[in-house]
Amino acid sequence: MEIDPLDIVYNLKCSQCSALLTPRGRKTSLVSDYTYIVYASDFATTNLIESLELRDFHKCKCKIRDVFCKNCEKKVGYHVIYPCVPCTSENYLPFFWLFYAEFIKEEKNELYTWKNAPGLPQNHETIDPVNVVPDYLFCGICFNLMEEASILRCGHTFCRICITRVIDLHQRCPFDKIAVSGEMVFPNFLARDVINDVLIKCGKCKEIMKLGEKSGHETNSCGVKKI
Q1: Residue 12: which of 35, 39, 49 has the closest Cα?
Q2: Do 158 and 191 meet the contact criterion of CB atoms below 8 Å apart?
Q3: From the first residue on, what is the mean pLDDT of each consecutive set of 10 residues in the chain (227 residues)?
Q4: How many CB atoms lie within 10 A of CB 93?
Q5: pLDDT for residue 27
Q6: Cα separation of 212 and 191, whole Å?
Q7: Which residue of 25, 109, 121, 212 could cross-link 12, Cys pair, CB 3.0 to 4.6 Å?
Q8: Which domains does the chain have, with CATH numbers?
Q9: Residue 53 CB partners (closer than 8 Å, separation 6+)
Q10: Model pLDDT, residue 2
Q11: How far apart are CA 155 and CA 109, in angstroms?
Q12: Which pLDDT belongs to residue 122?
């Protein structure tokens, strides 16, 4: 049975470095210009960096932030912060992460389609700290150690991806229900520094290190050292 092209789920990768940008891509066109093909997603991974600058989109009146591949820093798309009236019409696909087709490498997901796609994936792996970690360093949405800790104007801090997704869907802080928007999310540098100092054990070589050293360890030395 032939699958409707709109039902295909794509893994979207950066065309320059092949980093996975999202496992939930859908090929579509803009409401404001049906000839302009893009990929849309309701989920972005930590392989994306979002600009703090809010700007007008050139094809409609949406307010957006540019997004870049974290690995190679190539601009790959944008995050819709304030959709304009036409883009919130009944024809609008309520996915807020948009990717430029010319900067994307698509891979068809053979396991499911948009008709039977599972719920949103977890944003990151579960980390088991070696030392005792205060409760306030855990995200109140995913209940893991916060990744890229981000704070709202109301003072609550969450993983960047977790709170971005909640704001996209509900436009409210999940704790106090105060109305918020994407431009009200800021990096919590103090929380990030404290979390990077949390001690963890490598699952492969069993070496104990700071969480902030994990990526470099896995890239440069893990597998070389004997258990």
Answers
A1: 39
A2: no
A3: 80 96 91 89 88 91 94 95 81 82 94 82 68 88 89 93 87 91 89 92 82 82 55
A4: 16
A5: 93
A6: 12
A7: 25
A8: 7-113 (2.170.150.20), 135-220 (3.30.40.10)
A9: 65, 66
A10: 67
A11: 39
A12: 58
220: three-class secondary structure by DSSP: helix
Q: How far apart are CA 140 and CA 149, in angstroms?
A: 11
User: Residue 221, SS3?
Assistant: coil
Residue with tokens 């597998």: 223
For residue 69, the one-letter residue type is C
Q: Are residues 184 and 152 in contact, defined by beta-carbon separation less than 8 angstroms? A: yes
Q: What is the pLDDT of residues 174-212, one digit of tens each?
A: 999 999 888 888 999 999 999 999 998 887 788 888 888
Residue with tokens 């963890």: 200
DSSP 144-169: SBPSS-EEETTS-EE-HHHHHHHHHH
Cα–Cα dist 87/89, whole Å: 6
